Every structure is written in C-alpha cells, then in structure tokens.
Amino acid sequence: MLRCVVIGSGIVGAALADRLAGEKAEVVLLEQGRPGQATSRWSLAWLNAAAKTPHAYHRLNADGMRAWARLATGLNGATWYRPVGNLRVADAGRREQLEATVARARAWGYAAHLVDREEAARIEPTVRLPDTASRNLCLAWFPQEGYLLTEPLVEQLVARARQRGASVRTGEAGRVTGIERVAGRVTAVRTADGERIPADTVVCCAGRWTSEVAAMAGIRVPMVDPTPPGSTAPGFVARVGPVEPSPTRVLHTPGVNLRPHGPRTVHLEAGDMTADLHTPETHLRDLAHTLLDRARQLLPGLSQARVQEYRVCVRPMPADGMPVVGTVEAVPGLYIVVTHSGVTLAARLAELVTRELLEDIRLPQLEPYRIERFTATSPQ
Length: 380
Ligand SMILES: Cc1cc2nc3c(=O)[nH]c(=O)nc-3n(C[C@H](O)[C@H](O)[C@H](O)COP(=O)(O)OP(=O)(O)OC[C@H]3O[C@@H](n4cnc5c(N)ncnc54)[C@H](O)[C@@H]3O)c2cc1C
Hints:
There is one protein chain. The protein is 29% helix and 24% strand. The chain contains nine helices and 20 strands. Strands 6-7-5-15-16-17-14-18 form an eight-stranded mixed β-sheet. A six-stranded mixed β-sheet has the order 9-2-1-13-20-19. Strand 15 and strand 16 (257-260) form a beta hairpin. The longest helix is centred in the first third of the chain and has 20 residues, at 55-74. The protein binds flavin-adenine dinucleotide. Flavin-adenine dinucleotide (FAD) binds next to helix 1, strand 2, helix 2, strand 14 and helix 9.
C-alpha cells in the first residue's frame, strides 16, 4: 500500500487526502493550523471556467466544476455545494471583453448567454441593476457556475478521510519542519513535535506556503511573492450582513463582486480594491465600508447591514499563473499541487493526482503544469 503524506489541509489537500484514502492509500494528512482556515476559508470560492484560456486550461476548470457535482452526491452537497450560476455586468470599457468571453465559451460548448436587463432581473430578483442602456452596460449569464462553502466542505472531506483510514495531525503535531531524503529520494517528513513520519510519497498542498515547504526538499517553486507592497497575490475581502432578502447567484459587477455566505451574510470583494500585507488597519476598515456601500447600491436587502469581518488573504500564485502539479523529477518521492484556482480545481485535481500516484503514470491533462516548465527550477 502506498504511504502518502499530504502536507496542508486547505481545500486542495483535504480533497486529495479524502480521495487517496478512498482508493486505499495509507494517508497521513498534516496541517499546521486547523483544516480549511487559511486561504480556502476567505476565498470568493466561485466555480468558473468561462474566461480561462487556453482551451486545455478551460477544460480542466470545466472538469473541476463537474468533479464537485460528482462529489456533492456522496458528501452531503446540500451543506456546501451551490451551483447557482453567475451573473456578470460589464461597463462600456469591458463590454467587448465580456462579449468575446461569451462567444468563445459557447464555441467551446460551455453555457454562456448575453442577457438583457429584464432577463437579468428575472435571474436575480434581489438586485437593483443599473440603467444598462444609458451606461452601455453588458450583461452575461453563466448558468453552470456557482460557488462552494469551503468551511463545511473541508470539515466533511477531512472527516471522511479519517473514516477511510487517514491519520490527521494538526497544530504542532502537523507542522512540517523538514523533509528527509536518502540518496536524493524523499523518505520521510519531520514535524514540529519531533516526530518522523515515513513516506513513499510526500504531496505538498501547502498553498501560499508551497515555496517554503518545497525548499525543505531543496526545490524552488517560483511563486508570486506576497510580501512586497503592491504585490498582486494578496486580495481583500469583507463579509457583511444581515441581508434580507438574500441574493442567490454569484454576481460580478463593475463596483463589487459578491455571493451569499450562509443565510444572512454576503461575501464581498472588488477587483479595483487593492490591499497588501502592509495596508494599515484603519485603511482596511475604510475599504470594507466602501465595499459595503457599493454592495448596498446593488442589493437593497443590505440596508441594515454592517461589516462583520474583513481580511487581506493571499492567493497561492505560481509565477506564470498556471497550476504546478506533478512529481518533481529532480526529487523522487516529492509531488507538488498548487494553483490560484484551487477552489474550482481541487476535486478534479484530487482525481487526477490520485491516479498518477497510485498507478504510477503521467496523465496528459496534467502535462502542461509540470514544475519542469520553469527553466530556472533546479535543485538548490
Ligand atoms: C481573495 C481570493 C479570492 C479567490 N477567489 C477564488 C475563486 O473565486 N475561485 C477559485 O477557484 N479560487 C479562488 N481563489 C483561490 C483559492 O481560494 C485558492 O487557490 C485555494 O483556496 C487554495 O487552497 P489550498 O488548499 O492550496 O491552500 P490553503 O487553503 O491556504 O491551505 C494550505 C494549508 O497548508 C497548510 N500548511 C502550510 N505550510 C505547512 C506546513 N509547513 N506544515 C503543515 N501545514 C502547512 C496551511 O496551514 C494551510 O491550511 C481566491 C483566493 C483569494 C485569496
């Protein structure tokens, strides 16, 4: 039986541990904090593929959406799976881009429709749409998209992985501090409580911390550094409520992107609202209130709402924007999975990675994402 150590229990590591354990691998899942409480907790968690290119990457994301539908049937999907569709509003400056996205998506067999204001109001009756004619706005509807509630999902993935025989260690017992190699090959990991955990394969699912963990095995994973001021890796999000009535869909508009988060809360973010790891607390609070003001323009149901939580969180972003998935040729026994579309992709990657590991094969769908594409990648 293959002994797999999975490092990191965000959505990517939890989905993989569940799948591997279901296929009878011997799994140890190691998490330095609590499962699902890092980037995955704060994500917009929008399931999407429409705007993703090239075609192979679009297909991987569309497969990702279907993989969640499959998983939902056996894992209490009512508590976390929301295939509610996505309504997008583009202003005059982005009209052509949205029209092109819809045309390309349709050509690729993906459900996408340009809609008028009346149709959009039928799709999401809680929204007060701006005057589309006078502002030359463009509206599009992607009915197969949606979102996930990642906290109950990760909790249930980890619980099922345990039922399937996985061992789950958290806190200091789960914090990986070293990766052991013998003659170049990974043989074990060490944790902060002094344990040595032997492994045939160590799978790094450490999200934004991937570079640090891979460096323990002497490997450089090129990722966007979140620390310099103005880095594109950090994102700002806020949660507000109560909302009555609550919207149902994912909404992308020029001023704010949002989705429901539980029965009376709405998750907000905006592409033009940048914050980084140095943004002062007072400015973050102002940003959260600006987001709420923008959302109120759109959703009258937020008239009594207050800011409940806000946060700068960090996207795990490989340097060229594409996932890194696969065995590291220079370090046998080390496998890396990191992507900045981790919510959309995690269930499909869990399926594909499990096959690669258990059948000792290389799947063509994953070939574009090998770490060896970075010419600068070499053992340290
Ligand atoms: C603002 C924002 C919006 C986003 N919107 C979307 C979206 O709409 N759709 C989408 O698909 N994606 C979106 N993403 C990206 C998506 O959220 C991430 O790709 C995904 O959550 C990454 O999951 P993960 O499991 O790789 O990482 P994480 O959830 O960060 O989990 C990694 C885990 O590894 C653990 N770890 C790290 N180092 C160690 C160690 N040494 N030992 C043990 N454990 C360790 C951490 O504690 C953590 O729990 C968004 C991200 C952000 C920030």
